[in-house]
Known about the structure:
The chain is an alpha/beta fold. The chain has eight helices and 17 strands.
Amino acid sequence: MNLPNHPEKIVRDAKVLAQQELATNVYFLVVESPEIARRAKAGQFVQLRILSGAFTLRRPVGVAAVDEKKGSIAFIYRVVGRGTKALAQLMPGEMVNVLGPLGHGFAMAYKHPLIVGGGMGLSPLLYYAAAMQGKADVLMGGKTAEELFWSDLFDDLCGHCFLTTDDGSRGTKGFTTTVLPEILERGDYDVVVTCGPEVMMRGVAKIAREHGIPCEVSLEKRMACGFGACLSCSIDTTDGQRKKVCKDGPVFPAEEVFA
Length: 259
């Protein structure tokens, strides 16, 4: 069915095609949903509802990959509570309810983006990298080398992959913001696209602004409905307006949300 007043949003029960643990408590879930796969744009998300048990609230999950030929969409998520634990226990052939695609995604007109991500923020950036068809480079950070399993996923999608770790166990020792100025000075990037911890995104946005490069940020907030009705994800923007991350975002121009 389509939601009233939201004809582009679809609600479907979707069959689980694959479930794989990528790292400790981090899972890659693939479901069959041809209509949502055709409509999904990089940066958008869906709301998943577990059909077994007493789960009433949906879980927002960014779209990490789409295969239109197979009619599938994929998500990468971390187990953090009862809901995501139950999600991780789904087996191929079981069903999950999907609402989507939701939100405002990334601008796709840029020619040479630099993707900057950390932690689970790299999940929606994976689909963006695929959509840019090799035009983007990626800078990713983690606490340790173990957290940079993402590099294997991005390798075939990006031109260059820059790595940082807090402890120096892989790549450059430090944060993404440690090496970002040098990368921007060497490259000819026309946009910086970022998702991850807010402190990282604020730092990335500041550095991009100092280099005169547009920056898009993908925000994470608790969401109940996913399409702007419940107001639980409302934020204050820099011009004093109230906006909803689920409907007006999750992708925003950095200057709109970070002073």
